[in-house]
Amino acid sequence: MDVINALVVLANFVIVPGLAYGAQLALGALGVTLIYGILRFSNFAHGDTMAFGTAITIIGTNALIAAGITFGPLPTALIALPLGIAATCLLVLGTDWAVYKFYRTKKAAPVILVIVSMGVMFIMNGIVRFIIGVGDINFADGERFVVTARGFRDATGLAEGLAIRTTQVITVIVALIAMALLFWFLNKTRTGKSMRAFSDNEDLALLSGINPDWVVKVTWMIVAALATTAGVLYGLDKSFKAFTYFQLLLPIFAAAIVGGLGSPLGAIAGGFVIAFSEVTVTYAWKRVLGYVLPENLAPEALVQLMSTDYKFAVSFAILIIVLLFKPTGLFKGKSV
Amino acid sequence: MTEPFLIGDTMTGGYGKGPDILHGCTIAVEKGEIAVIVGPNGAGKSTAMKAVFGMLNVNSGAVRLDGEDITHLTPQERVVKGMGFVPQTSNIFTSMTVEENLEMGAFIRRDDFSDTMAQVYDLFPILKEKRHQAAGELSGGQRQQVAVGRALMTKPKVLMLDEPTAGVSPIVMDELFDRIIEVARTGIPILMVEQNARQALEIADKAYVLVQGRNAHTGTGKQLLADPEVRRSFLGG
Fold first, then answer.
1. CB contact under 8 A, A193 and B96
2. Residue B224 sits in which domain range?
């Protein structure tokens, strides 16, 4: 019984939140890795692209709720998500046309594009704060829980409860759908294959008659969709705050690099590696150990390896450890 | 005399704003023939071929395909006109499967290309066997077959190969030469640059020896093989 209780505590505080957080990071890292693979630079504005998409989605959600439209037990934000994606598409395509294209035609070195993307990051930062402000916004509505802790306890008779929030389930399901669509697109469609070809060998792709402008446009649109989805899922699961999204850039980059830059599969694996290491290292293991260990060995302290304030340090430690042993990441990405 | 199918006529030019590498160099290939470009290192063999394909500036002279002046077309536009080009290095998509490589070769085609793919598989049976394997996992000789197969997917009117046998073992090299002859037998004229001068001259209908960006000797493969001067300077006596 103790072991089952320990597993329930673990599931409640580590596995379920880790899965949801990992799915959010994975979607974010997919966007970073696509930009790296096809436009060949690290896009520092990615966190703020997510924030922009989420901000527009929140505005849409509020408008829908004001008009009396809700999604029943599901969050209304899911209905507003396409609006956010469309607006973000316009934003990134506009940015590409106004900023990145200039450097691309000059064949600027990747490091210059990285610095340019930092400039874009600051501008997007400002735009998002203008649109929606700097405060904490909670925009999740509908049913809060799929499984409540009390309901779980009553149903199973266990001492520990397991709570699964609607937003966590939605995060995992939506992320799975998005990833399945992305992989189907990249592996089965003509445009998707041409994107992979362009990422693999740009010169040969041009020789084969692949239109680089079209590849770049499609990439930005996919990235906008992924970024907005990741941002909205994260905001539903936790809350929206412009500054938090800017900070999310760190674990997202760590995830993309750990997985191997340019490799979509790597981005997903990296997302979960980073998420689970952050959650396990900052989790207080006292209760789990209390169930598993014999009574006289049960810890009195919290057994928390690191305070949650240090969670970003965890992503970077993992990043360094992985790169020491696999310099191109877990899935043979491009070396940086 | 009628004009050859593809001709780079008295081309002078170089890369970007750099100095001229080619000096009045002429390269041509007739329908149904194999033309090879040989010469010592740094003679401008690959450069001459790239000039024909539009990858460097031709300052004077002209390139004509089937009588049409294509001197000012980009390489991509030349592919659409029916020229197939296999670069010397990075000539496959390593992370994609063999079949996807061929599909990308046919990217400009909007019609059904399954029959062309079947022809390529007939020509290179090993590719059919490995069609779902990533091209980067294949051996050097097999990669070259993928590269040539990719270029054949557009059903080119002329095929240009830049040192197709570079870096493969002698046995594989013989096999590649056999395959190239087979491609030529399907009626596609081939223009290629080769390091292995003797073998290349043996299969060549027309051969060009370049020295320092100029035509040094021109003739049929047999003539050049028999030419004492060519033998002395390039073939080791």
1. yes
2. 1-82+158-165+189-237
Q: Are A25 and A274 in contact (CB under 8 A)?
A: yes
Set of chain B residues whose Cβ sits within 8 Å of the Cβ of A266: none
Handedness of CA B215, B218, B222, B227 (dihedral sign): negative
Which pair of tokens denotes residue A262?
């340019």
> Which residue segments constitute the domains of chain A, with CATH numbers given?
2-325 (1.10.3470)
pLDDT tens digits along B161-202: 999 988 888 888 988 999 899 999 888 999 999 988 888 899
How does A285-303 read in b/e, with b if 16+ C-beta sit within 10 Å? Answer: bebbebbbeeeeeeeeeee
With CB atoms and an 8 Å threshold, state whether A209 touches B80: yes
Task: Give the DSSP letter string of B89-146.
Answer: SS-S-TTSBHHHHHHHHTTT--S--HHHHHHHHHH-HHHHHTTTSBGGGS-HHHHHHH
- Rounded Cα distance between B232 and B227, Å, is 9
- DSSP lists the bridge partners of residue B8 as B27, B63
Q: Classify residue A28 by burial, with Cβ atoms within 10 Å: 0-12, 13-18, 19+.
A: buried
Chain B residues with CB under 8 Å of A210 CB are 104, 107
- B11: Cβ contacts below 8 Å, ≥ 6 apart: B22, B24, B25, B26, B27, B48, B51, B52, B58, B60, B61, B62, B63
Q: How far is CA A254 from CA A219, A301, B1, B17, B24, in A?
A: 21, 31, 67, 42, 55
CA of B93, closest CA in chain A: separation in Å? 6
Query: Residue type at B6?
Result: L
Which CATH number belongs to the domain containing residue B15 in this structure?
3.40.50.300
What is the mean pLDDT of the segment spanning A1-15?
89
Domain count, chain B: 1
Cβ contact A114:A44 at 8 Å: yes
Q: What is the pLDDT of residue A143?
A: 87
CA B4, distance to chain mean position in Å, is 16
Interchain pair A207, B85: CB under 8 A: yes
**Pairing mode of beta strands B34-38, B190-193:** parallel
Reported as a single tens digit per residue, the pLDDT across B75-115 is 889 999 999 999 998 999 999 999 999 999 999 988 999 99
Nearest to A197 among B90, B93, B154 (CB): B93
Dihedral sign, Cα of residue B230, residue B231, residue B236, residue B237: negative
Residue B107 lies in a domain: no
B155 contact residues in A (CB cutoff 8 A): none
> Taking 70 as the threshold, does the pLDDT of residue A335 lie above it?
no
Looking at beta carbons, which residues of chain A come within 8 Å of B100?
193, 196-197
Instruction: Quickly tell me which residue has 């980073």 as its tokens.
Output: A274
**CA B28 to CA B193: how far, in whole Å?**
12
Report if residue B128 sits inside a domain. Answer: no
The pTM of the full predicted model, rounded to 2 decimals, is: 0.89
Average pLDDT, chain A: 92
On the 0-12 / 13-18 / 19+ scale of CB atoms within 10 A, B195 is middle
CA distances from B95 to A41, A199, A205, A236, B133 (A): 20, 9, 13, 37, 9
pLDDT tens digit sequence for B3-51: 889 999 999 988 888 889 999 999 999 988 999 999 888 888 999 999 9
Could you give the angle at the alpha carbon of A41 between the alpha carbons of A35 and A46, nearest 5°?
A: 55
